[in-house]
């Protein structure tokens, strides 16, 4: 398992929702792939997959506003609506007209909104355990969303314990301690604690309700990957989503929970490479 604590994004762009940290792997001239992370994660979860794909692609990675090493600020708009706009801005900044897009969890909804509402064009789309179909959000997630102002006042030690337990539950076999530390660290200082509850408070299902009826109009090659042991979003949602998108292929990943990138990176990478390298 690659813990790779040294993963670092070296570039910054100012977006409509604050400064965004990003980077690029691979050589110029190769087919571009953009990786989108979910919540409450960052580009760090893509490190192994990104480096594998970079052998044959230019790979773009980024931390969404309010996540990872990107800006976290009081009053910041980190909703799905905002992230969809920011992603569209980034594609323009990078000069990518039809990239390959791979998106996990919340990032799946971001990629879908950018494509269906903002005209972002993709050569192909791979969705990994995405937030896409109602209803979504665990009982814990909904509870925190309804009382974010209360949870934000938790003493740091209690907040840290809650975040660690929550992130741990995204993995089926369990996370390496160093990986878990890296995933929770951005949320543990003062701005991070506020940002953790802010992103949950703004995670409104209406942002997927707005696009769910449009999935039948997706006309690009689409792969839906899903961890068979996902306790956050049941694998049945993956089959349901694949059935709604014309021609979509469904790829279950055995032994993986919601964080497929951590639980089964080799299996996920193999599925993505097979999909991205087929004639599209």
Automatic annotation (TrEMBL):
Hydrolase as a keyword of this entry, yes or no, is yes
Species in which this protein is naturally found: Streptomyces himalayensis subsp. aureolus
Hydrolase listed as a keyword? yes
Which InterPro entries does the entry link to? AB_hydrolase_1, AB_hydrolase_fold, Carboxylesterase_BioH, Epox_hydrolase-like
Q: Which GO terms describe its molecular function?
A: hydrolase activity
Alphabetic keyword roster: Hydrolase
Q: Record's PANTHER family?
A: HYDROLASE ALPHA/BETA FOLD FAMILY, PIMELOYL-[ACYL-CARRIER PROTEIN] METHYL ESTER ESTERASE
Q: Which domain of life is it from?
A: Bacteria
Kindly give the Pfam families that the UniProt entry links to this protein: Abhydrolase_1 (PF00561)
Q: Taking every annotated instance into account, which residue ranges of this chain make up the domain AB hydrolase-1?
A: 31-265
Q: What is this protein called?
A: Alpha/beta hydrolase
């Amino acid at each position: 398992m690659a813990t790779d604590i040294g993963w670092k994004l070296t570039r910054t762009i100012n977006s409509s929702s604050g400064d965004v940290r990003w980077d690029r792997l691979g050589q110029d001239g190769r087919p571009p792939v953009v990786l989108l992370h979910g919540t409450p994660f960052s580009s760090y979860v893509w490190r192994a997959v990104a480096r594998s794909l970079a052998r044959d692609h230019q790979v773009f990675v980024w931390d969404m506003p309010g996540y990872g090493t990107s800006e976290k600020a009081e009053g910041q708009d980190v909703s799905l609506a905002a992230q969809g706009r920011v992603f569209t801005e980034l594609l323009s900044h990078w000069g990518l007209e039809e990239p390959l897009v791979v998106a996990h969890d919340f990032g799946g909804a971001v990629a879908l909104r950018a494509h269906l509402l903002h005209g972002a064009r993709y050569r192909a789309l791979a969705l990994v355990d995405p937030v896409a179909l109602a209803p979504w959000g665990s009982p814990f997630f909904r509870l925190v969303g309804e009382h974010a102002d209360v949870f934000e006042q938790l003493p740091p030690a209690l907040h840290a314990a809650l975040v660690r337990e929550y992130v741990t539950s995204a993995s089926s076999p369990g996370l390496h301690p160093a990986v878990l530390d890296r995933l929770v660290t951005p949320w543990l200082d003062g701005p991070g604690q506020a940002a953790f509850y802010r992103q949950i408070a703004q995670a409104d299902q209406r942002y997927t309700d707005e696009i769910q009826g449009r999935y039948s109009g997706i006309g690009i090659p689409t792969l839906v990957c899903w961890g068979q042991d996902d306790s956050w979003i049941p694998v049945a949602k993956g089959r349901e989503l694949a059935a709604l998108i014309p021609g979509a292929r469904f790829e279950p990943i055995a032994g993986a929970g919601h964080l497929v990138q951590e639980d089964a990176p080799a299996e996920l990478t193999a599925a993505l490479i097979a999909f991205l390298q087929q004639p599209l």
